[in-house]
Structure prediction request, 275 residues.
Amino acid sequence: MKTKARRFTGGDMVAWGYALLIVAPMVWILSNSFKRPIDILMGKMVAPVTDANYVSILFSRQSDFLANLLNSAIVAVSATALTLLIATVAAFTIVRLNPPRWVSFLVLGWALVFHMLPTLTFVGSWYVMATQAGLHGSYLALVLTHTVHMLPQTMFLMIGFMLAIPRELVEAARLDGCNYGQIFRRIILPLSFGGMAAAGALAFIQSWSDFAISLNLSDQNTMTAPVAIATFAQEHQIRYGEMAAASVISMLPALVLIMFGQRFVVRGLLAGAVK
Prediction:
């Protein structure tokens, strides 16, 4: 039996165009990372392949990019863990503990306004605060500011997942004599692992790719990968090949989360539903 061929619709064209806008710059950066500087400057589409750019940023004594990647990992992992902890507790409090309505409106209103404002609005204040507190250039300053920056989005996501948990489970646990701390640990957390995985993946990518905050609050010892990539554009020379190679390496964690994160999130949600 012959199946009818699917027609190519306008929605398909939009989807493919959107995919092209995302993939094309990544392919261009990847190709430049394997080209010699002269070939990049001449705009050659086809050029001899070389790994000199990767060798230079990874193994050269003049390069600290591996240390910069480690700094990004320390800040992103720490900020993501702290953000998830605060956002999950806040979401549980707002959704299940029934605080006064004005408290919920105040917290959610602050989160919404904060999330809507550009990051650069707060960077100047954070710089002054970190400098006066003696924290400028420290991991603590970066972790705290990244946490504050990511908290509104993560909290809204966790509120959505908390609302999906049946209220009857909490009420039954209360009837069995559990306090809210026990309910949070034994019921809410196991059922929220899928939501925490999704929110954590987004928070990690946001922290890992941050430039504005890290540029102003880091120093030579705590410089993250995005800031280090920007330093390849020097006063008299732009090291295009090394910049492209560093960009490719810095994209790998995000690509891994995109490839494997969705499956993990779905598995976590199904496991929580069965429990």
Summary: The chain has a mean pLDDT of 85. The CA atoms of residues 87 and 155 lie 4 Å apart. The radius of gyration is 23 Å.
